[in-house]
Amino acid sequence: MTTETQTGPVDYAAESEPRLSWARHAPEVYKAMVRLDAAARRGLDPKLNELVKIRASQLNHCAFCLDMHTKDALAAGESVERIVQLGAWEESRHFYTEKELAALELTEAVTVLTDGFVPDEVYARAADHFDEEELAQLIAAITVINAWNRFAVATRMTPGHYTPGQHG
After folding, report:
1. CB count in 10 Å sphere of residue 32
2. Predicted pLDDT at 74
3. Lower Cβ count inside 10 Å, N or C end of the chain?
4. From CA 20, how far away is CA 33, in angstroms rounded?
């Protein structure tokens, strides 16, 4: 694909097609996921929810979800700077609140279970910043974005065409 820029034409790699339209072929599963996603985000700060979704999607290499949740975060008023720094949040702690840091740390622990169980100290830090209801919702939101990531990565959903709020 050739795109015209201020400095001239740029040839980008060809856009790949998805392997499968899983939402079309498994519509009941898709509808259930949409309902689960809506239920999981209830009571969570929308910006925090998007930061969690972006971080999990980075860890899972889900380009489709990164495209979607970056755009949704920007539409919710999140800053470009904080979104850019998510990939290195441990070195950029001063961009985030202690509550957000606890949520990001929990997101990583729940997402990367191959490194072992969610450590007690990670859970305890999250529990210090979220009441039990909020913590349950946060764990649900982390779990749901991981499921979405797996659907999108497995079927190679194509990023770049999402408009903020399109699926919300």
Report:
1. 11
2. 97
3. N
4. 17
Residues of the chain under the 70 pLDDT cut: 1-5, 168
pLDDT at residue 2 in the model? 59
Q: What is the pTM of this model?
A: 0.91
Dmax over Cα atoms in the chain, in whole Å? 55
Looking at residue 9, its amino acid is P
State how far the Cα of 62 lies from the Cα of 94, in Å rounded to an integer: 26
Residue 68 tokens read as 């979607």
Alpha-carbon span 9 to 37, nearest angstrom: 40
Q: Amino acid letter at 62?
A: C
- DSSP helix/strand/coil, 66: helix
Average pLDDT, the chain: 94
Q: Tokens for 75?
A: 């539409």
| 3-state SS string for 76-107 | CCCCHHHHHHHHHCCCCHHHCCHHHHHHHHHH
Contacts 24+ apart (CB under 8 A), 38-47: 39/140, 40/137, 40/140, 40/141, 40/143, 40/144, 41/137, 41/141, 42/137, 43/133, 43/134, 43/137, 44/134, 44/137, 44/138, 44/141, 46/76, 47/73, 47/76, 47/77, 47/78
Helices (H), the chain: 22-25, 27-41, 46-59, 63-75, 80-85, 98-111, 120-129, 132-155
